[in-house]
Amino acid sequence: MAKTIYKVAGMTCGGCARSVEQAIKAAAPSAEVSVDLAAGQVGVEGADPQTVAKAVEAAGFDFNGAA
């Protein structure tokens, strides 16, 4: 499965990035997650968009679809 880049609004610090990463990994334990805080983007491999969206929103951030 290829890595998909998603836009996530509201991440302002490393703690935010960790919250998003942990939420996605909790929803999809086998997923590979990388966060680009400066760009406001999250790269995810191994999880479908709906799972990522729910995890991001549950963590309190705005999921804005694929970048």
TrEMBL record:
**Keywords tagged on the record:** Metal-binding
Q: What sequence ranges are listed for the domain HMA?
A: 2-64
Q: Which InterPro entries match?
A: Heavy-metal-associated_CS, HMA_dom, HMA_dom_sf
Q: Pfam families, per this entry?
A: HMA
Gene Ontology molecular-function annotations: metal ion binding
What this protein is called in its record is Zinc/cadmium/mercury/lead-transporting ATPase
